[in-house]
Structures are given as structure tokens and as C-alpha cells.
Amino acid sequence: MKPAARSRLHLEIDLFRAGKSTGFIRVPHSVHRSAYGWLPIPVACINNGEGPRVLLMAGNHGDEWEGQVALGRLIRDLDPEQVRGRLIILPSANFPAAQAGTRTSPIDDGNLNRSFPGDPDGSVTQQIAYFLEHVLLPLCDYAFDFHSGGSSLMYVPGTLCRRDPDPAGMARLLGLMRAFGAPIGWIGSALQGQDRTLTAAARRQGVVCMGTELGGGGQVTPSVLALAEAGIRRVLAYVEAYTGPVPARADTRLLTLGGNDYYVYAPDGGVFEPLVELGDEVKRGQPAGRIHFHDTPWRAPTTASFARDGLVICKRVPGRTERGDCLFHLGTPYDG
Amino acid sequence: MKPAARSRLHLEIDLFRAGKSTGFIRVPHSVHRSAYGWLPIPVACINNGEGPRVLLMAGNHGDEWEGQVALGRLIRDLDPEQVRGRLIILPSANFPAAQAGTRTSPIDDGNLNRSFPGDPDGSVTQQIAYFLEHVLLPLCDYAFDFHSGGSSLMYVPGTLCRRDPDPAGMARLLGLMRAFGAPIGWIGSALQGQDRTLTAAARRQGVVCMGTELGGGGQVTPSVLALAEAGIRRVLAYVEAYTGPVPARADTRLLTLGGNDYYVYAPDGGVFEPLVELGDEVKRGQPAGRIHFHDTPWRAPTTASFARDGLVICKRVPGRTERGDCLFHLGTPYDG
Amino acid sequence: MKPAARSRLHLEIDLFRAGKSTGFIRVPHSVHRSAYGWLPIPVACINNGEGPRVLLMAGNHGDEWEGQVALGRLIRDLDPEQVRGRLIILPSANFPAAQAGTRTSPIDDGNLNRSFPGDPDGSVTQQIAYFLEHVLLPLCDYAFDFHSGGSSLMYVPGTLCRRDPDPAGMARLLGLMRAFGAPIGWIGSALQGQDRTLTAAARRQGVVCMGTELGGGGQVTPSVLALAEAGIRRVLAYVEAYTGPVPARADTRLLTLGGNDYYVYAPDGGVFEPLVELGDEVKRGQPAGRIHFHDTPWRAPTTASFARDGLVICKRVPGRTERGDCLFHLGTPYDG
Amino acid sequence: MKPAARSRLHLEIDLFRAGKSTGFIRVPHSVHRSAYGWLPIPVACINNGEGPRVLLMAGNHGDEWEGQVALGRLIRDLDPEQVRGRLIILPSANFPAAQAGTRTSPIDDGNLNRSFPGDPDGSVTQQIAYFLEHVLLPLCDYAFDFHSGGSSLMYVPGTLCRRDPDPAGMARLLGLMRAFGAPIGWIGSALQGQDRTLTAAARRQGVVCMGTELGGGGQVTPSVLALAEAGIRRVLAYVEAYTGPVPARADTRLLTLGGNDYYVYAPDGGVFEPLVELGDEVKRGQPAGRIHFHDTPWRAPTTASFARDGLVICKRVPGRTERGDCLFHLGTPYDG
Amino acid sequence: MKPAARSRLHLEIDLFRAGKSTGFIRVPHSVHRSAYGWLPIPVACINNGEGPRVLLMAGNHGDEWEGQVALGRLIRDLDPEQVRGRLIILPSANFPAAQAGTRTSPIDDGNLNRSFPGDPDGSVTQQIAYFLEHVLLPLCDYAFDFHSGGSSLMYVPGTLCRRDPDPAGMARLLGLMRAFGAPIGWIGSALQGQDRTLTAAARRQGVVCMGTELGGGGQVTPSVLALAEAGIRRVLAYVEAYTGPVPARADTRLLTLGGNDYYVYAPDGGVFEPLVELGDEVKRGQPAGRIHFHDTPWRAPTTASFARDGLVICKRVPGRTERGDCLFHLGTPYDG
Amino acid sequence: MKPAARSRLHLEIDLFRAGKSTGFIRVPHSVHRSAYGWLPIPVACINNGEGPRVLLMAGNHGDEWEGQVALGRLIRDLDPEQVRGRLIILPSANFPAAQAGTRTSPIDDGNLNRSFPGDPDGSVTQQIAYFLEHVLLPLCDYAFDFHSGGSSLMYVPGTLCRRDPDPAGMARLLGLMRAFGAPIGWIGSALQGQDRTLTAAARRQGVVCMGTELGGGGQVTPSVLALAEAGIRRVLAYVEAYTGPVPARADTRLLTLGGNDYYVYAPDGGVFEPLVELGDEVKRGQPAGRIHFHDTPWRAPTTASFARDGLVICKRVPGRTERGDCLFHLGTPYDG
After folding, report:
1. C318 and A33: CB-CB below 8 Å?
2. Which of A147, D24, E322, F332 is in the most buried spot, having the most CB atoms within 10 Å?
């Protein structure tokens, strides 16, 4: 199947064929070691009659594993008979990054979630972004983008959406978040990356979009993976794309994510010692973490403090830190 | 002060001067950007009359932060009046690695804990090992080497010692371990790295040596750091090198660490999903983890299983894994 | 001589001066090691009265040597008295790549033949493409671009052209191909690289363009070099740009190159064992090559097969192969 | 304070607050080691009532230190009471390059002074250029950009301006140059980098702009630093932005900088031996330097000569040289 | 099974177990991405009663593929019932190099065949060499080391041995070479690499050793692979380690390899044009190849000539060449 | 000519042949891009009857150009009739470093002057050191090793020798230094690099050795080059190896070089501002330089001071500096 005129990527599978298809999206890649080669992004598609059209993707950042593992299992386990409509499943969207185990692509240093709307003649990551926004998204009603904290951050597992000014739209987003059933869900108006994310691309293409931040630290944990797998089935059932059994869900605490005062950044370079834990309620002015000077350990560390009250939903993982690295960010109760 | 004849390293501070001294061990480093430069390894020394001579070191691996932060605080906070004898404190022993935030040195790829007895004319890491074994250790009665799991592993916090065939020696080691007060302590006869570790160097130099494995994942956590700081004071008090207040300690569960059947290794490359958690009791044959093939997610993952019963004391952190990476290791009850 | 207004490249030689001129195209390159430097792309020009204006270039990919050596010899050996009109000879068009011996430029990873129409403010490779399309091509009637298989591919030596819907244009192209006298010649409508190649640039500028694929494997062989040198003189004589002696030519077998089913790609990563040779006639379904798993040699290799009947005109050279690398491509008889 | 709508950079300080403010320009940088980090470009601002609005910047190239050190001292030493209007001081404009000690940025190989007008969605260096041209310059009447020769070039210390066709504008520029008081000052119509420099950006934004070339060789010297510090105070006093004491100035010799014949480039690669010194008056045809072949020292060196008469104002520093590197450039008397 | 005391490598399989065993040699490798990992070198062993003990190895250089593919097939296809004695099969001896597709190891730049007798505490390549010489070779009567030309050289397929001063030993070596049945076989007294090769190690351990040079160019060809597979079975049958069917063999032309005058080296850097082909008989003084200056193609190339008469048995493949690269080497008739 | 038994290096030229010979020392180098290649170190030899045997070398560090250029000219210009005895001239002793323009070798990071006595089986730099100490030095009476400050340091041009406890030996060294005629000459007992330098190797081999430090900064200047060329001829005349004309010489000021208090090192990382110049007489406690914090320019710089009185003979060149870099070193009057 040939994608839209301008994209140079080639889909091995037919997105309109009934049943389950698996194969690769081929990204042309003409380099010294292979003049006429392509990079293989794995993709699966399940079609079963009428129903919603859903894109499920992970690996937007290559080192966010929970969604990649959960979507791989979905490809293997899902019975097409339990599907209604079409699922396009893209477990490792920035495959070169996932192959390397890094947030960004080793080929062009590209951060896929800062590359939309992409460029059909640009770098590999820009070509992938273009294909997602201009070939796959226009074929979909819903897009679910499964992120985690990756190598540098750890989250209280949660779902997230952009605030929708239309009440019906907002209600639909809240319904998706409650269906997924993560401990927290956040609604933001100024998310990181702004108009260059998959979320922004989905909005431009008129696609309903929900994201997640599931754990992180560059690892997989049994409990977060279990949440991811159950949440995916619940949200597919919620949009009536899946008719199989779904596990029971817990309540989701809804939060708002605001601007700069929700974040704590490293005031200096050194070794980061956190002074609070994920899930703590903190107060404005409370010490958040220390930066230790391991080149001159007799020098007193620098302390960073919270700029407002809130719930700690994200913290930095690696000890080694540079000035400007995000150490924490907060959420505050969602006001509806 | 000039160290032993053959080492080319230079100590800025006088190890025999009363009170607290801080400065650098200078490692000559003649390179393009600086023909006559040296690398600065921070070091502190506290002398106060008669008493045991103790080496406290961390940063043997550069990305094991808990001990580095705890020893830095010890340098800043310890009142020399509360010391008896001499403490030599080396928070970032392989400083080039700690500066880079990596296990091994970016200068020579050197793993310091696989470099003993070192070489005075070798690479930077080999020169550091030589200095530790031949200059610092001969000045000491005790050596405490504070490791953690680093970027790739996470441990149940613990202390560890090599089995001592002499009952009195063994009793002394067990006393140190109980004094430190970590949740677990292990005694091994075939530890990783064998005769090339600081532990082996200490044994060669007749120095009583205890190590730790404190958390890991390349991060610092408040609870493990608190354990490290309390444990250091307790063990210094136990050897009568410290007369200040000590926090109460918890019991330590003693374990034995055996050979290859205590370890689970990745049977293939891919993404690692653990099936058990740290602290779980497992049975021989029980599935330990899966390796997922994220390049072809429709392919079933490979499962690795435990080769014996035991307690899970260590697990791999990063999702991205290659064949041969250690996924878990076990401990079994210490038989005395 | 100053090139067209927007290009930042500077031509040392005067393209309108009678006789033979040699020098460099200067590509401004302001970097740490030289704030006001330029990169020197060697170029020659021969003018002798009225006649066609011809661009002869090689080194579009830096590791395709046959054309580079043949054009260097042409610069040294050609007597201006035997020329009619103007020859612009550019033996190493992507000179930084040729200097490094690689397909793409070490400066910007640029593949020149995927960079047209170029960008006067872009990377070095994009600036070269812009200069070729907007400065040199508008001065020419013919462009001959001498490619080979490069480091990763080996070809049955051949000429190639894009299919021209105009019968007169097509006849002229066939005449050029027959004049060159390679064993095969192919006509394609969907060549690799599409609208970003020198061929596409020439079409946009109204220049008649023929390419070659001469051997490959990153090497020079006496027989292919002899063909290149004779073919260049024959084709120059054919367009009446050269009046000297020409060696006799052999017949050229005309072929068509089609879409995806003409190509065989590696289904997995490993070591490539070809099962056919260049020049073989193969059948649909016939095994083409095996990919061996040298990390687990007891595992059976994967076999790739041809998707259609045809003549093997290109094969991959390096044993070490990744999924998606082109292993073979085919030609089928030209139907006129 | 939020900069202009499209730039993604964030200013920590308020440019309209009275007195001296210091902090960072935050460049969002989402990478593997820090998903939500930013790069910190140090900036200071001094406001004191009515007066001219002046941008003082250095570190446009990261290895040009004289201006960076002088502006750092200005930030520390200047009493806001002695200021009239507003000074924005940006000592290390391309901070990632300055941090690395290189001309260009290690993040994207970007040469900031070849990146204007920049791109708000481009690479880090392109984003900095965009912020400078579209956020900071529109707030200014004057821009002073303190360059030096950097690692590869050494200059007779001087000021430089683009020729202004308006006599009043030209007089103002000459006044600035005389006020700064460097040994030489040059007026050029075709400066290196053309429309992609800060100078060109300033002209586009209607800002009066003067640059410098202060020494070089990648180093700081006491005499050039003293000139820089005195010259900055003199030029600020000249535009009535500074009311404190100013050191006396020397006369400036005015020169013109012309086209290609003012430059000498390396005709080959090897080791560069200069045959003249900075400040020498040279004649057309005079030998300028030799390139020695240190791989075959028995081979005679190549000699490069001057293409016109003039004063040597710039020479290459490093011995190791490639074909195309600038060895010298000349100035000729300014004709008014 | 635990290898000899000092080697740190661990064999997963039991070399004394009847039948076919496959698994890995584990090379301990403690690095940032895996603190307790090992590198997996694949190995197989077939035991069947009494008989000779034979080591078959390839991948001594990682980019010599013919032997690696042939030995992998031997592991899969050989019926243990057809074996007599013990075969140890090591298809990719320097596995990190083979995995990367390079001659030398990407871990330590180690050339395994210049690393004997190895070092149990040295780099990864030195540890592999030590294990081969001190653990595996002492268990063997014969060692066959299947080399090819690799990425940089192409050979007339041949076998090679060191001259044995003992006539019985020499006869046995000639018998092995004739049994293998390659087009040529050479006997040398001063082979490349001298006392640091596997051949030298085998001699030190009293093991009869034959090598090969099978094609090259970093590729696999059907004809050379067929020779390798047949030759391996013939030579195993000759030493009575194999009782299955053997293909008929061709005659081998015996040659002597001498000192410096048998080799032609590049007199300069540039692009290599060979003037003779493999298998040509050449005369002293005959031009062998040209080095073209592609940076200044108007400059005449340099010609290298043969220093003696002989048969061309090896040539350089890559066009891009540096001074000192071997272009050709010769053989002369073996005098018995 | 074959060098001593154990060295693997091969000399192309015959050191005993009358007249001038030029060629290469071949260092075997078997790597991916060339399996049987060698690295070419240029060397020349002039023999003319009886007389002293002298080694003249430069390029011990690859970025010290003055001696390399001067010795290249000596090779080209010296008339063998003016020589007595034998001169071995090695302009670029660590040729891979000189080719790269770096202090140390890009192949193995080797600092040749920290590699003696070398290792015949070691890295490339260790093999060169072994060849110099064990093959060339035993053939010589005198060794002159022409260093400069290189890329990171600048010297008052001088000669240097190790203190010789034998008065006759010391007088001979002083005679050599006075004959060379540099502005200063120093005698040291604890020179940088100690027993691993060429000077130490010469002493071990009973060869009279004098070194130089000629300028630096990684550049060539006309005045220092003129001194080098004249000094070389004067010192050759002094040992009666040269009978041609010699330029007049100036007096040399003799200095002593002592231990740590003669050096000033950077107390922190940042940008180095020197406060004194080469040739200044300084006092203990006098400020020597400042380290500026260009990441936070509002922070006061750190000042480093001299630890004793003396003459400034060496200063650091590059602005960007790390803690531990040498900023200055001093000399004090030679006491005889």
C-alpha cells in the first residue's frame, strides 16, 4: 500500500485488509553501509468490520519501554474477533531510537515528539513525523500515545490530555482518562513541546488524543506494565473498539499542570539528592533537592526549592545532573 | 606529602597532620589540551590521636552515587573531636568516571574494581589502583568500600564480605555487617571480579574490608542515603574510630552468595521485562524475566528462569538488554 | 568568476576561457580549525569554439571510484584541440565524501544524490547540490553522471536513463546508451532517490542526462575502468563534443527497471550468503540469498527469494547485513 | 518575561526592571540525559532611567575569550548609577560553544554568526540566532559584538563596521570606532558571512552595530584584555550610556577590507610557516608563507604569495593546515 | 566446565560430553550498560568415541566471512555418527569483531591474530587469545584456522602453512593442504604477524596447524563458500575425524611466500588503480598499480612496481588508500 | 636494514650507506582498512666518514612544529660534504600524532615522551619508543630532541638538560646549551615525565642528550624558527659533526628548574586570564592568573598565585582551562 503522495515511507501491510497484518514501515535510508536500504519500523493492523479507527503507539521516545512491551503483547494476543473497526499498532514509532535504547534517534539526534508536523524531505525522524501526521493520523478517530518517564524521569503513572475548550470534547477526554484507570490524570494547557508533539499533530488532524506517562527510569516494572495492559484494554472497550473482557479499574485523581512554577530545575551541575518522593504533597518554599559538588565535596551543596504548593508527580532519576535539568514537577487539583 | 617511591600520583594533603585536611590526589595527565596537567581526585583526612586507621571510599564505580554523597557529607559534618585515629575519606575514587557519571573511566575505559593491583606506569585507572593498593591501604587497618548497583543494577541495600576461613576474622566481619545495619548482608567466596577488586587488594595488604551494595539505578534516594549515613557512623563507632551519637540500627539478614546458579543472564538481546521483584523468594525453574523482540514484536518473547531457590537481592534496571547481561542474582540463608 | 547570485560557492576558474583550465570550486567552511577556510572541489573546463556544452561528473557518491579515476585521466589526457564546445569536468563532486572514501559526506552525513535541488544556505552537501543545479546545469546541454555500486553494491556495468515520454527524447537517450557501449543499459521510471537526484535536477533544468552504474564494491578494476574510459570518449564523440579516435564498442542489452518486486531486501540481520551471481537469469520464487545468524550459528538461516523473473544486475557486497538492506535487484527486457 | 511569540527561549530576568539583574536565557533542550532540560545562557541587564538601549555581546564564537572576560567583568563591576538607559550584556552568546571552548556548538555544529536570521523551530544555534534577531535586537539602539580571532586566527586588535552609504550613518560608525580606540579599524562592504551575521541582523532590525576583532589564538592576553575593557567603557560613554570615568584612548588607523585579493589561502595541506608578521606592510607577489610536507620532509614546500599590496592585519595560528585555510588577510588605507 | 585456572572465561558446554553440544564461551565484561555481563562467543563441540581432537575456527578476524558461514553450516549439518574423536568448532572466534563486521574488535581495537599468547588479565581480545592458547589448544591435535582476505584484501583461494624443518611434519602439512584442495597452497617462513598468531600459538602448544585465505573483500561468494565447505570435509576425512562422504578435490599449486620483495605497498595516499589481476604472472619492474590524487586530478598519478617475478595471489580491494597499504603480494613456485 | 631482533619496525634506508638517504621507518599496522599496512615515519640519514653519531629528532609530540620544520629544512639543505660522522634525522618521531596535529597519537592516545622504554609488542606509540631506545639510540653519541610548548603551552625559547652529577658531563651539557644559543637554558633534576622520556632513555643508553622548548602555541613563528635553524647548525658544529658556516650566537641565561613550587596550576575550571607575561620576574604570593566562571559571569573569578620567586618561562595558552592544568612555571638562577 502506497502512502500519501509526498511521504517517501512505504507501508508493507495493507491497512484495509481484514484480520491481523504485521510488517514494517520502510524508511528509505541510503548510507555507506547500504546504498539502497531502508529502516524497518514494525507495525500491525487489525481490521474487523465497522467501528472506530484507533492508532495505538509507543516508542515515540525510544527509551520509554512500558508502552512498547504492552503494545507488542497486544499485537500477539489480541483476537481480531474481539475488535470492532480498525486498530493500527505502532509499538516503537521512533524505531532507530528504540533499537539504540535512547530517547532520541542515533541517526539524526531527532526527538520525534518535537518534530511534528515533520518534513517529507527532512531527516529520518522528520520523515517519520510527517508520515504519522499526514498518512496515519488522517485515517484515525483516536490516537493513544503511550509515553513513560524514559531514562531521565520517573512519574506517578498517569494519563494526560490537552485542555479542550469544548465541554463535550473535554468530557470525552475525561472519560478516556477515567477508563484507562491510572492513579492520576492531568489536564494541561501548556504541555512540554507545544505544537511539535504527536498530541498537537492529532489536534491539527481532528483526532481525539490521549497520552500517558507510565513510570520511567528507562526500565519495565511488573506493576506498571500490568496497569498499561489493563488500561489499554479498558480504553479500547470505552471507545467500543474492543469487545473482550476488561479488568476492573481504580479511580483516577485528576490534576492540572501549569507553567514554570510547577517545575523545579537544577540550579547548578553536580549530583542530585532528592529530598521528597513521588506522591508527596509539598509546600511553596519547601526544599526539593540538593546538588552536591562531587569535584569538591567539602563545599556545601546547593538547595533547590518548590515555587508553589502541589503534588509531586515526576522526579529526575539520574544522580549526575547539569544546570537546567528538570528535577521535579508538580500537579494541582483539577478544578473541572 | 610524597607517596611510595613508584607511584606517580601526588597527595596535596598531609595524612599525618592533626585535624581535618582536604585537597586532591593529583594524577599526572599530559594530553593535547594540557601538556603538564593533572586530574584532581578529591580526598579528605581527619586525624585525632590514637585509634584505628580507616579508609572510607566510594566512587570506585563512577555512577554509584549513594556512597559518594554520604562521604561528602561526612567530610563536611564530622567534628574531628569525635574521631579517634585517622580517617582517610575518598568519596569519588575513580574521579574521571564520577565526573562523567559512568561506571568506568572515559579516559581509558578502566573499571577500577577490575584493575587491582594496578600499575604505576599504566593507564590512569591502573595508576589509581596502584596508589590505592600500594600507598593508601598499607596505612590502614580497615577499608570500607561503598558500592551501589550503579546505572545497570538495583540491590536490596546490603553489606558484603569475603568469607574468612579464620573464625575470629569471620566474627569481626559479621560484627561490621551487623553494625552497619543494612537489611541484608552477604558473605561470598567467589565475588564478581575476584582478585582484581579493592576487597582483594585489602586482603593482600592485611586490611579488614567490608563493602556495600546500596540501592542503585544510577540515582540517589532519600531512604538509601539515610541508611548509608547512619551505617557509616555505626560502623565507625563499632571500630572505635568515632565517639559521636549513632542512630539505632535494624537487624541484618545474613545471606550466602554462591556460583553461576545464583545468577540469571539474558538469553537473547531485546527489552527486559522482570517477572519478580527485589526481595521475592523464588523457586528453581520459576520464570524470572522475559526478553521482548521490539524489532519484531509479533514474535514471542524468550523467558529466562531461575536455576535455584533463593531470595532476589539484585535485578537489572535498563529495559534495553543484550545477551549475557545479568538480570538477577539470588542469595540463600547464611549457614554460619 | 562569480556564480549565480545566491550560491555562496566560488569558482576559481573561468568557464568561458579558451583551452583547458583547472582549479577548485571553493565551498566556504568556517569551523573551529579554520575560521575563514573553504573546501576545495577540483574542477576542470575545456573550451574550444562552438559545440555542445557537456557536464561530466563523478564522485556524486564519494566511494564510487571508477568514474573519478576515468575523469581525472580525461582532464590530464584530453587535447583541447579534439574538443568542440565546452566540457566541464567534476571528478569528485562530493569531494569531502571522496576524500573520506565514503558514500556520504563526513561533514553533514549528506548524500549528494538525495539533496537536489539543494539549499544555498543549507549544509555543505546541500550547498553543493544547489550550485550544481542552479549554476552549472543551466550552462549545459548534456550531463553525464558516472556512478558505480560503491562500497555496498556491485553492478553488471551499465548505463541508465529515465524514461522520456517524448519519442525523440527517448531515441536520443537510447543513442547515448548505445554509444557508451556498456554490457547493459536500463530505462526506469521510478529510480532510487526520485526527485532529489542529479538526474532529476537535469530534467528540471532541461539538460539531457545519462547515468552509469559501473561495477562497484568500493574498488577499481582494470576492465571496468577500461570500459569507462572508452565509453566516455564514445559518448562525447556521439554528441560531437570530441573529434579524436574512439575505441570500437560492443552491443548494449536494454532493460527495464520496475518497482518493489524487482528488489530483494534482507529479511533479518546477520551475514549474507548470495545464492545467485550477477548476470544470472532467475525465476519468481527462486531463493536469492540466505541471512546467517552468526551470534547463534546453530540456528537455521533465513532465506530471501525473488518476487519475479528477471536478470540479476546488482548484488550486495558486504557479508554483514541488517534487515532492510538491498540484496539484489533485477532487470527485465526493455519493450521499447 | 516571555519573549516574542514564536521564540521558544525563555528569559529568567525582566529586561525592564530597574537596576542590575542577572540570570539565564533558557534554551529548551530535551535529550536522553534530561527529558525536560534547558541550556543556560548567562545574561545580565542594567536599567537606569532614560538613555540609549545597548546590546553588548561576546561569545558569538565560543573560543573568542577576550570579549567574554571583559563583559563578565563589566557585569560584576559596573555601578548601575553610572548607566543611562539600558544595557543588555550577553558574554557567551553561543554558550554551548563557549562551554566546550570551541568556535561552533558541539550540539549541532552551529556557527552562530552564520545562522542569522535563525529559525524558532531549528537547531539550538538557529534558535539562539532567532532570539537575538527577533527578541533582543528590536529592543536596542546599538549592538556591539566583541569578536576575536579565536583558535585559528590572530588579529591586530581592531574594530570593524559595514560601510554605510548614508554619510551621517558612516560618520556615526567612524565615531564609534574612534571612541573604542583600537590600533586599527576597518570598514568593509563584503565581510565574511555576509547576510547571516549578527551585523547583518542588526542592520535588518535598524540597530547601529560595531564589531571587533581583538587578538585571538584562543587565548587571553593582558594587553588585549586591557584594551577591550577600556574600549567598552569609551564606546558606552560615547553613546551616552555610561557616565563614569573613561581611560584615555589612542588613535585608530582606518582601513578598508576588500575582496578575494585581500586574502591568502593555503595552496596545499601540511604545516604552515608564516614569512611575515602581523602589522607588516607587504607587496603584491611577496611570499606570504610556506606549506611544509611533514609526511615527506625531503620534498620542497609550497609557497603562497600576496595578491596585492597591503597591511597584514590577520594571520593563521595553527601549524597544521589544510588546503583552503585562510593564512593571512590584508587591509588597505581607508579612503573616506 | 571450568577452564584452566587463570583464564577468566567460562565455557557453558562440556567438551567431554558425547554427541553435539552448543552454547557460548562467556567473556566477563563489566561495563556501564551492564555491570555483571559477559560477551557470548558461540561454540560447538562434537564428541564420538576415539579419534583425533580437532579445533576448527574462523572469525579470528571479524570480517572474514567464508569460514564463519561454512563452520556454522558444519555445526548444523554434521551428524555426530560421522565423527571420530572430538571437534571443537568456533565460527566467530573474535565475536565482538564479527558482530560489528570489522577486522578488529570494537571494544579494544584488538587484532586477535596479533594478540597471542594473550593475557588472562588483559583486554577482551587478549583474554580470548589467552583462552585459545592455554585452554583450547592444549586439548587438540589439529587446529584449522579459516581466514579470508577480509574487507581490505582479496586472495586466490588457498591454504597456508609455516615451513616445518622436520620432513615428516612438512609432509603431513602438505598432505593437509592437498586434502583441502584449494587452487593454491603456500608455505612460508616469515608470515605476517609472526609469533603473535594462532599458527604460532599452535606451534607453541605442539598442535598441527593449517590456515586458509579464502577470497575476501568482506563478502561471501557461492564458489568460495562451496570450496570452503568441501575442503573442510576433505581435511577432516584426511585426519580421520570424519567418515561421511567427501566431494572430489582439484589439484593444489604449491607456492613459497618470501620477504619484503614479495609485497607491493602504496607509495602515496590517494585512489588505487590495479594494473594486474589476481592470478597474473608478473615480472620484476612491471607496473603493479597507480595511486591517483583525487584532490588534484590534474596531477600525474604515482606508479608502484613489482620488486620480483611471481604469481599475484593477493590484491588490495578498496580504492581509497594510504601510503604503506599493501597493494599486492606474490607467490613463487615451491621448491619442495 | 633490519633493526634489533625484537623490534617489529622496519627501516627502509641503510644507516651505514655513505651520503644522504631518505625513506620511512615502517610501523606494522594491521587494521580494518588495511590488513597488511604500515605507518610511514619519515627519516633521513647522512653519512660522511668518521665523526660523531648524532640523532636529531622532533615531533616527539605531534603539535610541536618548530623543530619539525627546521629538521625538514636540514634534510633538504644540508650538503653531505659538510657533515662528519653520521646524522640520523627524525623530524616527526610520533608521526601519527604529527599527521593529526595533536600532542598524542590518535591511534592509541599515546604520549611518546611518557612511553619509554617502550614495548616491542605494545601499542604503536610503545613500539616507536622501543625502537628509539633499543635500535636508534645505541647507534648514537648524541641525541637532540627538539620540543616546543605545543598547543597548550608557550615558552621563552630555551634548551634544557638533566643535571649531570659528573662535572665533566655537566660541562659538556652546558657547552651544548651555550652553543645552541637560545635566550635561556635550564638544568633540572626532576623534569616532567621522569624516567619515561627520550632524555631518560638516552641516559640509560649512555647517549649525551639535550632538549629544547622552542616557543609553542601550536604554531610556527619566523623568529623562533630562525633560532631553531641557527641553533641546530651551531650545536652540530660544536660536536664537530658539521663543518659549514654557522650564524653568530647570543648569550644564554642559565636557570634551574625545581619542584612543585615552581609551577602554578589552575585551582578551578573556567577561562584563564594571565596576569603576568613570559619573561616577567615574579615574587612569591604575587597573583599569577584568574579563572573566570563563564557559566555564571556574575560570580567573582578565582585567583592563583606564585608559590615562590622566579622568572616566568612558560605559560598556558588556551583560555578554556580545567582544574589541574599548568598555568605557569618558573625558573631560578642556575647556581653552577
Report:
1. yes
2. A147
